[in-house]
Amino acid sequence: MAALSQAPSPTSPSPTGTNARKSALxxxxxxxxxxxxxxxxxxxxxxxxxxxxxSLPHRKGSISTTRSSxxxxxxxxxxxxxxxxxxxxxxxxxxRLRELKAKISSQSKKNFVLExxxxxxxxxxxxxxxxxMAIAEAKVAEHLEEADQSEGIFPDDRKLQSYGNLFFLLxxxxxxxATLCRLVSMSEIDTLLQTVMFTLYGNxxxxxxxxLLLTMFQSVLSAQFExxxxxxxxxxxxxxxxxxxxxxxxxGPGQSYLKTxxxxxxxxxxxxxxxxxEVNPLKVYEQMIxxxxxxxxxxxxxxxxxxxxxxxxxxxxDVQAIIQPRLGMLMEIADSFLTTIMESLDQVPYGxxxxxxxxxxxxxxxxxxxxxxSICSLIGGFFFLRFINPAIVTPQAxxxxxxxxxxxxxxxxxxxxxxxxxxxxxxxxxxxxxxxSLNPFVESNKAxxxxxxxxxxxxxxxxxxxxxxxxxxxxxxxxxLHITLNELFNTHQLLDQHRDMLAPQDKHHLxxxxxxxxxxxxxxxxxxxxxxxxxxxxxxxxxxxxxTSSFLQxxxxxxxxxxxxxxxxxxxxLIRSIPGLADKRPLDLLKIAETxxxxxxxILVRKGIKVKEMLSELVAxxxxxxxxxxxxxxxxxxxxxxxxxxxxxxxxMVSLEAVYKTIGDHNNYLRSQLDSYKAYLQNVRMQSGGGHxxxxxxxxxxxxxxxxxxxxxxxxxxLGPFKFTHHQLEKDGVIAESxxxxxxxxxIYFNITSPIPGTFIIALHYKGRDKAILEMDLKLDDxxxxxxDKVQLLDLEYVHFNVDKILALLTKTxxxx
Length: 817
Description:
Layout: H1 17-28, H2 40-50, H3 67-81, H4 89-130, H5 137-144, H6 157-172, H7 175-183, H8 186-200, H9 207-227, H10 240-249, H11 252-270, H12 281-295, H13 310-315, H14 317-343, H15 350-366, H16 372-393, H17 407-424, H18 439-456, H19 463-473, E1 480-484, H20 485-497, H21 499-502, H22 509-517, E2 531-535, H23 547-554, H24 559-577, H25 589-597, H26 602-620, H27 629-687, E3 700-703, E4 711-713, E5 719-725, H28 726-731, E6 735-738, E7 748-756, E8 759-766, E9 774-779, H29 780-788, E10 793-795, E11 799-802, H30 803-815
Antiparallel strand pairs: 1-2, 3-4, 5-7, 6-11, 7-8, 8-9, 10-11
Helix pairs in contact: 1-19, 3-24, 4-8, 4-27, 4-29, 6-22, 7-9, 8-10, 8-20, 9-15, 9-19, 11-16, 11-27, 12-14, 14-17, 14-18, 15-16, 16-17, 16-18, 17-18, 24-26, 24-27, 25-26
């Protein structure tokens, strides 16, 4: 699997025509295109296809049994399923289904962006408000301002084409994104994932994009396993890769599965608002003491002190009596959840099962001596830790329930998730020894869960169908991305930042694209972040103008084979287009052609005449017999397949309509949260006397949150500089550590300026020098976040500031003057 992360040889000449397509197909799997370096699994898939039906005797009227003819036959089957010239119930249902899937994909992206905004508000705005730092109001309002979602026009046609080339390369050769996901920081990953999951591969129900995305996961996972030093840390740490895997499960198919499988179980549980199943002895003891105090007017018996340790609480007989029946009930509920999940095996989205399969395969390869239990613990780490359990713990965030569960059901759901995780993973009771009481659930279900996790991995590969999809993509002229300008610029910036790792050689296609684009543009404001339509194309591949001609040139399919399949495809079209024909058995192909040729529809007449002529030619070439027995059988089978397909389409549409409604409701919920924040900010401003006028000299006037004018600045915006000596800051505890020699500290001083509200520049000066030795740009919300995360020191190279003390100094100097 090491080959997955390698790039194609930069020194080989640029392929054209057939070779280009073959190189592109190899590249789409993340493989090098040099001769002799092929992936065993892809070769096996190809070999399997080439041998398909090879043991069957060739029958008159059947097509050649080569891999090429099999692929060409697939094209016609795909065309029959989505035939734009047919207007029957299936075609109409499929059109509605495609529209619904596009809406879900689009809405999922909007929700992802809104959720990120809410996380931003939770971590930043709450800090500003609780610390009474309304000075950053303007910055917050700007972050919340709505983007203009109208279609935009990229200003430069040449760059538009270059970006189209770059993003086609990124989409069809997923190894580049796979490498980039491993290189970016945690602070950058969400923005990149937005582009990757919801734009680059945003059509969540389209097989080509889904399969390309999965090949990217294969490359990422392969590299993760190759660089792993400890088995126990695999896939468990909070890294960009783990964040990527979690985000993947939040796409439409995963959301649909969670809604279908877990929603009813969780809703029935949270109805019992007063059902208390707490089993932590310390918490049970505290609850017991509170009840006694309420009933006895505050007096406690001498043998029941107010505060005790975990051991004393666990040894209390009354606590044990309370916990014992709860353990049985908890295990019963957890068992019902587990049974529901296990019975849903066939409903688990293909992509999630395929990732489980890769985890098992890579684990066996990296650790050949690993036990089945150890391997299943890694699979469970993804399936339960990243997918199932977050939805159980916070069902409201996954749109499985309305509102937020009350206290007791919320705790019960958390305990169930812990039990499932301990079952799927190696149990760890280092911090929660009370969970050992639930070990019987783990022991009794260990074999059961291992079988389920192994069964999850039993899915076929998609390499051949991806090859077909990629081949089809080369014949399309309308592959587009709906992408925002900032997604474009941010991806460009990240690629440029890591270009030496991604494309070290000058002749590498990715490096050529980046060199042509030049310096990444600066991101635009949220208001100007328009969505554009980016046409995708490749300058290194020859588009396929005609699939039939292409197959004749590149394969050993005969003209007779092509005529046979075209005839069959037209007959299926005619039967679908003329009411009543599909119900008549046995089918009479000549009569069907004659019926079409005598209708009042000019298109059907032309097709009827054409297919009659083609049937005669096939008989003359001895490809079919006079009775068309075998072709009739194949047409009948195709119609049966399409009939079954119609039922599946209808079922899928009902399911996805529920998903779309749920996603839409969640979007409304997120928007209401943002509106609440805006209203709260405006209320804070009004209560503080109209922003920062009057006593506060910050230079910010009227603030209109959510309006066009966010903050009206006065002329004298810059505050400072205010001078502080090294001795003064050291005495006040602001300087916690100093690397400045003792004999020079008297010559050191600091100038602190606030050029805009919420931003401070600290400059370190040495007496007698005009310029500062160093300057640091500080954001107020960054400092508050460090304070909340209990980061004690701020490194200024020569000195270390105490975070709490520097915050107090800034507050005193700039906010409260």
